[in-house]
From TrEMBL:
Name recorded for this polypeptide: YqeG family HAD IIIA-type phosphatase
NCBIfam families named in the record: HAD-SF-IA-v1 (TIGR01549), HAD-SF-IIIA (TIGR01662), YqeG_hyp_ppase (TIGR01668)
Entries under InterPro entries matching the protein: HAD-SF_hydro_IA (IPR006439), HAD-SF_hydro_IIIA (IPR006549), PGPP1/Gep4 (IPR010021)
Superkingdom: Bacteria
Pfam families: Hydrolase (PF00702)
CDD domains: HAD_BsYqeG-like (cd16416)
Length: 176
C-alpha cells in the first residue's frame, strides 16, 4: 500500500533537473502540479529560475503541461503569464488528468514524468497512472487552507515510507 505514495525521485527543486537528465531517462514530456511546485501558490508570475527552466525545456523539445486540481479559471489565470498548456480539475489523486495529457501527446507511460510537492495527490496520481514521478520540496512553507489537511495526513504517510524505504533521500538532481 505504501508504494502507491513512493516517488521515483526526490529532488529539492524541479529547476535543478535538466532536459539532458530527463532525456537520459527516456522522458519526453513533463507534467507538473502548479501551486508550490512550479509557482508559489500566492505568486502566479513565477521566478526567473522557473522561466530559465521552461526555456531550456522548450529548446529541448520537452513539453511542460500543468496538471492541477484547481478550476479552469484559476489555472488559466495562474498560467497566463507563463503561456503553459494545462489540465484543470484533474481529480488527483486519480489518474484522469495525467492520462488525458499523456494520451493527447501520444506518449507511452514510460515517456512522461509527473512532478509535484505532495504525496497524497501528485505522487499517488502518478503511481495510479503508472508513470514516473519527481517529488519536490514545496516552494513555500505555507499552503492554501485545503492543502493543509493533506499535509497532516502526508506527515503520517512519510513516517511509514521512511521506515519501509530508508533509501529515500532528497537529491540535488536526477544524477545525484
Amino acid at each position: 500500500m505504501l508504494d502507491k505514495f513512493k516517488p521515483t525521485w526526490m529532488v529539492k527543486t524541479i529547476y535543478a533537473v535538466s532536459p539532458d537528465q530527463l532525456r537520459a531517462c527516456g522522458i519526453r514530456a513533463v507534467f507538473s502540479d502548479l501551486d508550490n511546485t512550479l509557482i508559489a501558490w500566492n505568486n502566479p508570475d513565477g521566478t526567473p529560475e522557473l522561466r530559465q527552466w521552461m526555456t531550456a525545456l522548450k529548446e529541448a523539445g520537452i513539453p511542460l503541461i500543468v496538471i492541477s486540481n484547481n478550476s479552469k479559471d484559476r489555472v488559466a489565470k495562474a498560467t497566463k503569464n507563463l503561456d503553459l498548456p494545462f489540465v484543470s480539475r484533474s481529480l488527483k489523486p486519480l489518474s484522469f488528468g495525467i492520462e488525458r495529457a499523456r494520451t493527447k501527446l501520444g506518449l507511452k507511460k514510460s515517456e512522461v514524468v509527473m512532478v509535484g510537492d505532495q504525496l497524497m495527490t501528485d505522487m499517488l496520481a502518478a503511481n495510479e497512472a503508472g508513470v514516473r514521478s519527481i517529488l519536490v520540496q514545496p516552494l513555500l512553507n505555507t499552503d492554501k487552507w485545503d492543502t493543509r489537511i493533506n499535509r497532516f495526513f502526508e506527515r503520517l504517510v512519510w513516517r511509514q515510507l521512511k521506515k519501509q524505504y530508508p533509501e529515500l533521500k532528497w537529491q540535488e538532481d536526477l544524477n545525484d
